[in-house]
């Protein structure tokens, strides 16, 4: 429509904006490895030095390797059948990018699920403890978010919800995560009578399953209303586990430091990928078979069925 106006200045501005957008996309893609290293530095500086916290570093190294291979162009020295076989990797990468995009869209949209301040139970998902008995700042943020939710629900004239602190006791922990969370909530002014402990779970699925059982036992039936609380990057995957456990509840996320988000989101994506690994491995297997067949056809010089 802009080009139909015959306004040269407007057309030039629009063309520059389009070119600028594509240039920005190119720069982001070309130098994404630099962002990964920058993020890895802050995660290494402020967080524990564990493998899950090194994901952006590993991704940055992988992107540099891909960039070097792309610029050097070794494929032009390979026979056609080998290039067809090597096409397996970029096609699988495109598939992974597609499901990553789908994951990010769902993760973003899930942040805007309506709150509905009329809940019977607020389930706080556990995490590791400091010195085996003290909640970490990350876990404290989850509890604080649940307390904030409960206070706002009361201000709206609804009943005070009960808290279900969900988390078992790890091998290196002196008390269960649930008990440590309850201790923290009580120190923040929460009535101990409003706290229920779920101290048997070992993972997010069990958090949901066992918390549902405790809520049913306390409420008398399964018609209760509940929300669960975790970090904003985790609530989408947690919601998938809630559905698997038959718990009708949506999540409320608490703030996460920005430097930690890229690493955490990659880890969450990997977790969701594993949840549906059978489906993804079938697709990846079909892609691999297709490329292998094409390589064989090219090697045998059978042009009729070649698609590469």
From TrEMBL:
This is Integral membrane protein. The keyword Disulfide bond does not apply. The lineage of its organism: Bacteria, Bacillati, Bacillota, Bacilli, Lactobacillales. It comes from the Bacteria. InterPro entries: Cell_Envelope_Assoc, DUF218, Rossmann-like_a/b/a_fold. Residues 120-268 form the DUF218 domain. The chain crosses the membrane at residues 12-44, 50-69, 81-101, 121-141, 281-303. It comes from Lactobacillus intestinalis DSM 6629. Gene3D superfamilies: HUPs. PANTHER family: INNER MEMBRANE PROTEIN, PROBABLE PERMEASE (PTHR30336), MEMBRANE PROTEIN (PTHR30336:SF18). Keywords: Membrane, Transmembrane, Transmembrane helix.
